[in-house]
Specification:
Its EC number is 1.6.5.2. By secondary structure, this protein is α/β, with parallel strands linked by helices. Helices cover about 40% and strands about 20% of the residues. It has one domain: Rossmann fold. The longest helix has 21 residues. The chain is globular. The chain starts with a strand and ends with a helix.
Length: about 180
């Protein structure tokens, strides 16, 4: 069975909703999905461990945008993974990224690229959203070729749009398919 970690930080629920959309899609294909966070906000949250990364076959990673960069909680965690990097323990594992911002031009693409950097340094294989996903060309909210994204609105009041959900599902399906082929 394919084991996929969906790792996220969510401040107001948007990235968490995306994580669940991606995770539920992966699970519907028959994979074992582990939802992980960087900090425990409720009784259901499970904190990421380096062992989770070592044991997974693939990774979906997301945070909200913070001035075009990943959330500090994520950066702090990745800075502890040099031992995995030195041993090459994440090399050739497929990965994808996802993010949310308050506005359409609030830094989602820059954040997705920033989220990609530690994954690339670890030798992971980064998967984007190909243009055979029709919603990528039709969205008026989130969604980029770099990864799934969401526009939460000024007060974080926007729910995931149908296009954003479909892009999340496409990302989850692609991650599952590639991980399955590699396993």
């Amino acid at each position: 069975m394919v084991n996929i970690v969906v790792l996220y930080h969510s401040s107001h629920g948007s990235v968490e909703a995306m994580a669940h959309e991606i995770g539920d899609t992966i699970e519907s294909h028959g994979a074992d999905v582990k939802l992980r966070t960087f900090e425990k906000k409720n009784e259901f949250d499970q904190i990421i461990s380096k062992q989770d990364l070592i044991e997974c076959d693939a990774l979906a990673f997301g945070t909200p945008t913070r001035f075009g960069m990943m959330a500090a909680q994520a950066k702090t965690f990745w800075e502890t993974t040099s031992d995995l990097w030195l041993k090459g323990q994440l090399i050739d594992k497929p990965a994808c990224v996802f993010s949310s911002s308050s506005s359409m031009h609030g830094g989602n693409e820059a954040t997705l690229l920033n989220l990609s950097l530690p994954l690339l340094h670890h030798g992971m294989m980064l998967l984007g959203v190909p243009y055979d996903v029709p919603e990528l060309l039709n969205t008026t909210s989130g969604g980029t070729p770099y990864g799934a994204s969401h526009v939460a609105g000024k007060n974080n009041s926007n729910q995931l749009s149908e296009c954003e959900k479909r892009i999340c599902r496409a990302v989850g399906t692609r991650l599952f398919n590639i991980a399955s082929k590699l396993k």
